[in-house]
Amino acid sequence: EFYIGLRQRRATGQEYAELMNEFMSAVKQNYGEKVLIQFEDFANHNAFDLLEKYRTTHLVFNDDIQGTASVVLAGLISALKLVGGSLADHKFLFLGAGEAGTGIAELIALEISKQTNIPLEESRKKVWLVDSKGLIVRSRLDSLQHFKKPWAHDHEPVDKFLDAIKTIRPTVLIGSSGTGQTFTKEVVETMSSLNEKPIILALSNPTSQSECTAEQAYTWSEGRAIFASGSPFGPVEYNGKLYMSGQANNAYIFPGFGLGLIISGAIRVHDDMLLAASEALAEQVTEEHFDNGLIYPPFTNIRKISAHIAAKVAAKAYELGLASRLPQPENLVAYAESCMYSPKYRSYR
């Protein structure tokens, strides 16, 4: 009874496409080429199509696909300092193949491709996905949604998630399923038997939907897991040692990412900007953070972190020739800080 919106069913199909097109055309017509549009909480079947359609004509990004991917990649880059090797040396298995899962997978593959100079199609083979029907493999190609098709590799079908772990033998386990308690004791113990330091990212939220808790990850791995989650968890004590777990929160990325686009006057979003944001966030993790088991910096430093990310994103926009605010400021971090909103108000009492 208190709903203040339009009391009619949501548009779908052709009507929906025309409404979006009208909005996207009008917003650019009114505010110009540099207006930044962020897609948030669009359903899978619309999110990928809209991003693909408008990324070449508008300054647009989808936080659920690209922001999530960027913050998770940052955590993986940090975690490598604890487990060793490069991204290309690791094997990734996802539980969940929606917009978050496939978005993260694609950015990991892009970073591997960039680091190794191997084709993207080849670097994707390091990444495996499990959906509700089991491991995504080539024999399922005809029945897959289009955004899952790049991840259909040559392999016999595997129905059960635990069997997929035993067969693929991943070093990194990533949960983006939206289903709680799917990283069971047996799953974590299997990952721990395969890896000295298994990387386990339980990204689904809220807390009730997390694939496992921090306490479960540390206890079942006997304190060896490198863990981060989408939901916040408090410190965990195991065998006399205190473990702190990081939260892979999009709020680490999108404010700084958006600011970097704005201060550079970027006209398009390029995947290399997302990689730059990931690398910038990973750079903010110190030895002290690592000693506490963290692969993300404390959120209390978010303004400093955001300025650093904005500077790296803006620098990449200038490097790619996509920046329109010229000349380039000499100190992009200082310039980003000067452009940030400060919630300080005059006292009227």
From TrEMBL:
<keyword id="KW-0560">Oxidoreductase</keyword>
<dbReference type="GO" id="GO:0004473">
    <property type="term" value="F:malate dehydrogenase (decarboxylating) (NADP+) activity"/>
</dbReference>
<dbReference type="InterPro" id="IPR046346">
    <property type="entry name" value="Aminoacid_DH-like_N_sf"/>
</dbReference>
<protein>
    <recommendedName>
        <fullName>Malic enzyme</fullName>
    </recommendedName>
</protein>
<dbReference type="InterPro" id="IPR012302">
    <property type="entry name" value="Malic_NAD-bd"/>
</dbReference>
<dbReference type="InterPro" id="IPR037062">
    <property type="entry name" value="Malic_N_dom_sf"/>
</dbReference>
<dbReference type="InterPro" id="IPR001891">
    <property type="entry name" value="Malic_OxRdtase"/>
</dbReference>
<feature type="binding site">
    <location>
        <position position="249"/>
    </location>
    <ligand>
        <name>(S)-malate</name>
    </ligand>
</feature>
<feature type="domain" description="Malic enzyme NAD-binding">
    <location>
        <begin position="65"/>
        <end position="318"/>
    </location>
</feature>
<dbReference type="InterPro" id="IPR015884">
    <property type="entry name" value="Malic_enzyme_CS"/>
</dbReference>
<dbReference type="InterPro" id="IPR012301">
    <property type="entry name" value="Malic_N_dom"/>
</dbReference>
<feature type="binding site">
    <location>
        <position position="64"/>
    </location>
    <ligand>
        <name>a divalent metal cation</name>
    </ligand>
</feature>
<dbReference type="GO" id="GO:0006108">
    <property type="term" value="P:malate metabolic process"/>
</dbReference>
<dbReference type="GO" id="GO:0046872">
    <property type="term" value="F:metal ion binding"/>
</dbReference>
<dbReference type="InterPro" id="IPR036291">
    <property type="entry name" value="NAD(P)-bd_dom_sf"/>
</dbReference>
<feature type="binding site">
    <location>
        <position position="205"/>
    </location>
    <ligand>
        <name>(S)-malate</name>
    </ligand>
</feature>
<feature type="binding site">
    <location>
        <position position="40"/>
    </location>
    <ligand>
        <name>a divalent metal cation</name>
    </ligand>
</feature>
<dbReference type="Pfam" id="PF03949">
    <property type="entry name" value="Malic_M"/>
</dbReference>
<keyword id="KW-0479">Metal-binding</keyword>
<dbReference type="GO" id="GO:0051287">
    <property type="term" value="F:NAD binding"/>
</dbReference>
<dbReference type="GO" id="GO:0009507">
    <property type="term" value="C:chloroplast"/>
</dbReference>
<feature type="binding site">
    <location>
        <position position="41"/>
    </location>
    <ligand>
        <name>a divalent metal cation</name>
    </ligand>
</feature>
<comment type="similarity">
    <text>Belongs to the malic enzymes family.</text>
</comment>
<dbReference type="Pfam" id="PF00390">
    <property type="entry name" value="malic"/>
</dbReference>
